[in-house]
Amino acid sequence: MEQSAPAEPLEMFLRRVERAHIDRDVVATAATHPEATECVWPGTYGGIRLSAGPASVTYSDGTTG
Question: Which residues pair with 52 in a beta bridge?
């Protein structure tokens, strides 16, 4: 049975997703990650609501990734 690759470390994931669409004035508003706990991460541009789960992100324009 093949194992999946380990998740990107939480801090790296958050830094990457918050910069992903900033050139379009779109910011990350919520994210899930296997290492996350329920909290609001302050970020650079605004708070990102975190919770545990598969790595994913929701942006201010409604897109997800």
Answer: 33
38 lies in which domain range? 27-65
If you write DSSP's letter for every residue of 16-65 in order, what string do you get? HHHHTTGGGT--EEEEEETT--SEEE-TTTS-EEEEESSSEEEETTS-B-
The better pLDDT of the pair 46, 50 is held by 50
Supply the pTM of this predicted model: 0.84
Domain total for the chain? 1
Half-sphere exposure of 54 (CA within 13 A, CB side): 4
